[in-house]
Design brief:
35% helix, 5-stranded mixed beta sheet
C-alpha cells in the first residue's frame, strides 16, 4: 500500500536537518558542475576570439609558454620560408615574429599593481589576425610609443583608458585605441628596443 503524499511532506518538515543536508548534498555537486562548465565555456570563447585553427605557434624547444620562449631573427627567417607556409595578400609568407612581455600596472582591484601582458606585433601579424577589431580610437603607428588595449583591460586599469599615458619599458606610452578582446598591442621592433629583450619570444605562421 502506497503512503500518502501528505505523510511524505510531514516527514520532510519533521526532519528538517536531514532534509536540509540532503538538499545541500544535491545542490553542491550541481553548483560545482555549473562553475566548471562556465569556466570551460569562457576558455573556449577566449580561444576562439584570440586564435585561429589555421595558425601555428612556434616556441623554443623545451618550453610550453610564450613568456619562457625565445626565437631569434635568424631562426625566424628559416621558419618563414618553410614549405607549406601560406602567403599574405602582398605575396610575403604569412609569418609574424612577436614579443610577449609582462608589465606591472596599477588596477582598480590592486592599486599597487598587477601583471598585464603586452604583445609586440609586425604588420604581417595584424593581417593574420582577422579577429582584431577596434572598438574605439585607431591602430598604433609603428615605431611610436603607442599601444592598443583590450576593452576589458581598459575597464580594470584606469591608466589604460583611451587617450591616457602609461609608463613602462623605460618610457611613456600613449593609449591610442581599444580592441574587443586580448592584451596590450604595440609594434614589435620598438618594444624589443625599449625592453632590451635579446630576442623575440614566438613566431606565428599560417
Amino acid at each position: 500500500m502506497a503512503l500518502p503524499i501528505s505523510y511524505n511532506i510531514r516527514n520532510l518538515i519533521e526532519r528538517k536537518t536531514t532534509t536540509l543536508l540532503t538538499a545541500l548534498g544535491i545542490a553542491l555537486p550541481v553548483a560545482i558542475l555549473l562553475v566548471v562548465l562556465a569556466l570551460v565555456a569562457g576558455l573556449q570563447a577566449a580561444f576562439q576570439a584570440s586564435g585561429s585553427p589555421q595558425h601555428v605557434l612556434v616556441l623554443r624547444k623545451g618550453t610550453n609558454a610564450e613568456l619562457s620562449s625565445s626565437v631569434s631573427p635568424q631562426q625566424y627567417q628559416d621558419i618563414k620560408f618553410k614549405r607549406g607556409i601560406a602567403a599574405l595578400k602582398n605575396g610575403e609568407p604569412a609569418a609574424s615574429l612577436e614579443l610577449v612581455q609582462v608589465v606591472n600596472l596599477p588596477s582598480v582591484d590592486a592599486p599597487d599593481g598587477m601583471n598585464v601582458t603586452i604583445r609586440g606585433l609586425t604588420p604581417a601579424g595584424f593581417e593574420m589576425r582577422h579577429h582584431v577589431q577596434l572598438s574605439a580610437g585607431r591602430m598604433f603607428t609603428p615605431g611610436q610609443r603607442e599601444v592598443v588595449v583590450g576593452k576589458a583591460i581598459a575597464k580594470r586599469y584606469p591608466g589604460l583608458r583611451l587617450g591616457s599615458r602609461v609608463t613602462f619599458a623605460r618610457g611613456e606610452w600613449e593609449v591610442v585605441g581599444c580592441w574587443m578582446a586580448g592584451s596590450l598591442l604595440s609594434t614589435v621592433r620598438y618594444l624589443v628596443t625599449c625592453t632590451r629583450s635579446p630576442a623575440t619570444t614566438t613566431a606565428q605562421t599560417r
